[in-house]
User: Which sequence fits this backbone?
């Protein structure tokens, strides 16, 4: 299984690895989301732009995931939902789980795809080749020494 991403030029002019996915919102619809691929992020977190659509899916306080990063603790809620990705053969694959949603806009402009999801894949970030790829069986990769 192969899911293709891209190197996306963000509003600040920096080019970052991203992948387009979808998220199931409270009314059951799947909506498109652009995720920043972050190999250092433990958790997947949706941007504050999705707060109103996801808030009805919030878990109770005892199940709350607390988020913190370089800037300290980030305001968030936790939701139970589904994240989906379109494979290169056109099929949708999904990952269910508890995900964060930022509650303040200063936390992140983009949704972040963390290792709670990406640990299900081999993830390739190749800036020189301009490739961003998530692989799972039967797809794989192999490194070769130049001849």
Assistant:
């Amino acid at each position: 299984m192969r899911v293709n991403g891209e190197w996306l030029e963000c509003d600040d002019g920096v080019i970052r690895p991203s992948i387009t996915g979808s998220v199931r919102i409270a009314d059951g619809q799947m909506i498109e989301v652009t995720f920043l691929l972050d190999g250092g992020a433990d958790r997947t977190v949706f941007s504050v732009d999705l707060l109103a659509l996801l808030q009805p899916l919030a878990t109770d306080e005892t199940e709350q995931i607390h988020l913190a990063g370089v800037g300290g603790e980030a305001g968030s809620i936790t939701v139970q939902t589904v994240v989906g990705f379109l494979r290169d053969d056109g099929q949708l694959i999904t990952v269910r789980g508890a995900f964060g949603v930022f509650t303040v806009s200063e936390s992140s402009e983009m949704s972040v795809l963390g290792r709670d999801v990406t640990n299900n894949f081999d993830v390739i970030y190749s800036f020189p080749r301009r490739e961003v790829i998530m692989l799972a069986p039967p797809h794989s990769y192999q490194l070769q020494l130049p001849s």
Remarks:
- The first helix runs from residue 51 to 54.
- Residues 86 and 92 are 5 Å apart (CA to CA).
- Residues 2-135 form a domain with the Cathepsin D, subunit A; domain 1 fold (CATH 2.40.70.10).
- The chain has a mean pLDDT of 89.
